[in-house]
Design a protein that fits this description.
Layout: E1 3-8, H1 17-28, E2 32-37, E3 53-59, E4 69-73, H2 77-82, H3 94-103, E5 111-117, H4 129-145
Parallel strand pairs: 1-2, 1-3, 3-5
Antiparallel strand pairs: 4-5
Helix pairs in contact: 1-4
Length: 151
């Protein structure tokens, strides 16, 4: 079974967390295919059919400490909205993109959304220590929930 992982974000600061998770999973697992995008609407032209989809993005709910890992299975628009807006100027949000993809019957099952809580944004090229800890926790959770299958 192939696992598709999409990282949403940018290449700077804590907003790069989605890209980093996708990149790390792609390097350490042969059963993972990845791509990264800056805006959630970019998903529409690249959704896999018939394989699990994991979407990873930075979130700021102001309700949890930085590095907290959130996970939900789509559809769960009410919980996704409770996470707050990701720290980017994506235009239309992830919930909007997933709702549209769902209406067009483009979403595979399962579609899981993972968010890592980020702190107040600062101008830095690197991830903060707390978010990096969240990355490690998310990688372990993916390995636990989707074990690598050996022939």
């Amino acid at each position: 079974m192939t696992l598709h992982v999409v990282g949403i974000g940018s290449d700077t600061g804590d907003d790069q967390v989605g890209w980093l998770v996708a990149n790390r999973l792609g390097k350490r697992r042969r059963d993972v295919q990845t791509f990264s995008c800056r805006a959630p609407m970019e998903l529409l032209g690249r959704l896999p059919l018939g394989a699990p989809l994991l979407i990873v993005d930075a979130v700021r709910s102001n309700r949890h400490p930085p590095g907290t890992v959130h996970q939900l299975q789509w559809p769960a628009t009410n919980r996704l909205a409770a996470w707050g807006q990701p720290f980017t100027s994506h235009g239309l949000g992830l919930a909007d993109a997933l709702s549209l993809a769902d209406q067009l019957r483009l979403l595979p099952s399962p579609t899981l959304v993972w968010g890592i809580e980020i702190p107040e944004p600062v101008a830095s090229p690197d991830l903060s220590a707390s978010v990096l800890a969240g990355v490690e926790a998310l990688l372990q959770a993916v390995d636990r929930d989707f074990p690598t299958q050996t022939p």
